[in-house]
Amino acid sequence: MKILIPLINAHVGRFDQNVQELKETLVRALEYRQDCVTVMHPYALSGVEPHAEMEHPQFQAETQGQLQQLEAVWRDSERLLTMYWRAGEWCIFLKSHAYQSEVSLKQDELYTKLDIEKIIVTTDFLLKDILSLEESSLEKDYTWIVFSFDAYSREAVIERRNLLEQLQQRVNSAVLLIGAVGSGNDCVHTGETALFLSDAWGYGLALESQYVVMDLHDGEIVWESGRQQIDLLQSKMEREHAITLFALRDFVVKSGFSKIHLGLSGGVDSSLVATLATQALGSSNVVGLLMPSPYSSEHSLTDALELAKNLNIETHMISLDDIYHSLKILLNKEFAISSLADENMQARLRGLYLMTYANSTGSLLLTTGNKSEIACGYGTLYGDMCGSYNPIGDLYKTEVYDLCRYINQQAGCHIIPEHVLVKAPSAELRVGQFDQESLPEYERLDRIIELLLQNRYTHDEIVCKSQTTIEEVLHVANLLRKSEFKRWQAPPVLKLRATHLGSSRCGTLLSTFKG
Fold it and tell me: Residue 388 sits in a domain of what CATH number?
């Protein structure tokens, strides 16, 4: 048996566009379709991660209606397998010239058998439960098709591969993983597609619409030529650089925008985001706003301008000096402005400029906080946290530097100026300010946060494993807890790991738990 998989970067609510792309992909795969079962991920019909939309009767009807429209490119000898959401449950749809079957994927069942094609259908969320079954409960003469609904993360890719290998070994039959393609709110689906046989396996990621053909007899996998795929043997840096560019571009386009802008501070975070945006969207679609305050250093301006020149992006420079001093005088007449309020006022004036530019030009604002700063609340609400999307918010500060150096290495030149990478990081909101005055060195800080979030170690265990002090660990843990309210109001952060500090991880605002 051969399986044809159309991987479609569908857009939630764009039903006509989605079905047209499906048709075009199936036409390109015409030479393979005669002997294949075509298996489509449900998101190829609905778009990636519809949430409230899934329960709307009209949305369900439109999704099912797409199947009927596909009949225009279908031939009598072909077979189709997919799923769609109907009345609170997944419905498995199987059709050929001789029959049409619609079977519910029951919530209390781990998998569903389709005897007519000797196929079993399940999802990646059920794999652990399936593997806990007794040997006698596992069907061994069926092809197992696993639809993946989990978005990309480093850990999930490794875990899914291990679970699928275990399943194949236990059932001794072909096991397939069928993924989706496209951005969700704060995540990305990377067309994760795999085939496991007893003597062969293949695994890849797809970052655009295309088709894949899998031969269940010899394990051969044919990816559509001329389309972007990622081999899992590629380095993590290479893989996640490509994924970030795809996710950023997809989010901007599906949001209805073509241009983005951001604040260019001359620091490493904004330099990286500007570079990623330029790589994803092209230099003509990226604008950098330089907004020096009385405490901005000369090198920050020169670094930002050098980066903009290297990227060939448009810039605008707007000094904060006059409005900052005027506002400070005005407010001090009513109450004494604290030093913290004084610093945040500068950040919020920048937020005002950035959002005014967004409203005036129809450009989408990117924000630039990294995971280390987001975890510690090192950002100003309604200031530098203004924006619609954050492509680097799941990268620790040390990883931001690593990705910058990787981009420079790949380019063979310093696109991101070397001075940006070697100078001490600073928010430059007061005289002589540096990040490490209030935070541990980033190498230690990142290790502490990782052990707190990912490993969930006790404070004493973290001290042993991170070569730090208990005072530093308690300080970081307290910052993580106290800054939860900021993360609730932050823009979507692209998820790259399981410990993502986005909507799926938000803690309790009123918690006093100090773990």
Answer: 3.40.50.620
The number of beta carbons lying within 10 Å of the beta carbon of residue 359 is 9
Range of the structural domain that residue 88 is part of: 2-233
Q: How many domains does the chain have?
A: 2
Q: Among 233, 262, 296, identify where a domain stops.
A: 233
Please check whether residues 226 and 245 belong to one and the same domain.
no
Residues in the chain: 515
Could you tell me which of 447, 151, 193, 393 has the C-alpha nearest to residue 273?
Answer: 393
- Residue pair 226/194 in contact by the 8 Å Cβ criterion: no
User: Which CATH number belongs to the domain containing residue 229 in this structure?
Assistant: 3.60.110.10
> Which of 228, 202, 414 lies closest to 307 in space, CA to CA?
414
pLDDT by 10s per residue, the chain, length 515: 899 999 999 999 999 999 999 999 988 998 887 778 999 999 998 999 998 999 999 999 998 888 888 877 777 668 899 999 988 889 999 988 778 888 988 777 899 999 888 999 999 999 999 999 998 889 888 999 999 999 999 999 999 999 999 999 999 999 999 999 999 999 999 999 999 999 888 899 999 999 999 999 888 899 998 888 888 778 899 999 999 999 999 999 999 999 999 999 999 999 999 999 999 999 999 999 999 999 888 999 999 999 999 999 999 999 999 999 999 999 999 999 999 999 999 999 999 999 999 999 999 999 999 999 999 999 999 999 999 999 999 999 999 999 999 999 999 999 999 999 999 888 778 787 777 777 889 999 999 999 999 888 899 999 988 889 999 999 999 999 999 999 999 999 999 999 899 766 666 666 665 66
Q: How far is CA 365 from the centre of its chain?
A: 17
CA dihedral 221, 222, 224, 227 (to 10 degrees): 50
Are 110 and 212 in a shared domain?
A: yes
Rounded CA separation 37/25 (Å): 15
Q: Are residues 180 and 279 in the same domain?
A: no
- DSSP-derived letter for residue 493 is B
Collapse the DSSP code of 481 into the 3-class scheme (helix H, G, I; strand E, B; otherwise coil) and give the result.
helix
